Amino acid sequence: MNELSKLRATEDEHSMTSEEMHQVLFNAITEHSLPPGTKLREEELAEAFGVSRTRIRELLFRLNHLGVVDMPPRRIAMVAKPTKKNAREVFHARKIIETGIVSEAATRATKADIKRLQATLEKERIATETDDRSGAIRHSGDFHLQLCELIGNDTLTEILKGLVSRTSLVLAVFGPADGSSCDCDNHMHLLNAIAAHDKDAAVKALWQDLTEAEEALVFLDEPAVKPNLKALLSPHRAR
User: Fold this and answer.
1) Which pLDDT score is estimated for 33?
2) What are the DSSP calls for 183-219, one per residue?
3) What is the DSSP string of 123-170?
4) How many other C-beta atoms are found inside a 10 Å radius of the C-beta of residue 43?
5) Same domain as 32, residue 60
6) Residue 78: CB partners within 8 Å, gap ≥ 6?
7) Are 53 and 93 in contact (CB under 8 A)?
8) What is the 8-class DSSP label of residue 62?
9) Same domain? 149 vs 47
10) CATH number of the domain encompassing residue 110
């Protein structure tokens, strides 16, 4: 075995999996540990995670596909920086797509589906009451994704996952400091309508939910921040 092969074998044995790295970096971005505009230098990320730059490049391409990382040609990748226009478009797109999703969910939802959704709402409620803003945003997104998953359309779920990712970034930047994303009460109204198989009430609750979340956005410029990637990400490396 040559030296390059030995290096790769050592990396494969001790480094994080691609999925683990994706989750760590994705969470750091959507939970605002890495603010929009943060430069994501391949060499810094490779050192932080203890992997090759090739694997980091693959990771960045995946996050770029989700819309949370920008990769300008011949320039350093950076955390996407949504504009007011981007934010408005994301919510508009979600209203269009999720109208069909909740209508279908109201037809298909089983008791097991409702129980699973209730558990997610309980997590969101706890996060909101304990001022865990990032947790509230995450569980809110999970609730909407689970609604989509229950209708069994993988393509639609993948599309919504990208929109939810963009929403998380928008909320991290423009969301009110004392709020999460969507309102827990609105989610409960939506869930009750789906449990009752009431399509019209479900759509009405969805639009109220997304409209209120959009209206709560605060469009202010943020000061430039340059976080230490190694200090932030290295603790997540596999031991």
Assistant:
1) 81
2) -HHHHHHHHHHHHTT-HHHHHHHHHHHHHHHHHT---
3) HHHHHHHTT-HHHHHHHHHHHHHHHHHTTT-HHHHHHHHHHHHHHHHH
4) 10
5) yes
6) 37, 38, 39, 40, 69, 70
7) no
8) H
9) no
10) 1.20.120.530
Q: Taking each helix axis from N to C terminus, what angle separates 133-149 and 154-174, rounded to the nearest 10 degrees?
A: 160
Quote the mean pLDDT of the chain.
85
Predicted pLDDT of residue 8? 40
Domain limits for position 147:
84-215
15 shares a domain with 115:
no
54-76: burial string, b at 16+ Cβ within 10 Å, e else: ebbeebbebbeebbbbbbeeeee
Average pLDDT score over residue span 96-113: 97
- Counted domains in the chain: 2
User: Residues 63, 25: contact at Cβ < 8 Å?
Assistant: yes
Residues 206 and 230 in one domain: no
Decide: 49 and 56 in contact? Cβ < 8 Å. Answer: yes
Does 142 share its domain with 178?
Answer: yes
b/e map 2-21, b = 16+ CB within 10 Å: eeeeeeeeeeeeebbeeeeb
Q: Is the pLDDT of residue 42 over 70?
A: yes
162 in the same domain as 107: yes
Mean pLDDT along residues 130-134: 80
> CB 190: neighbour CB atoms within 10 A?
29
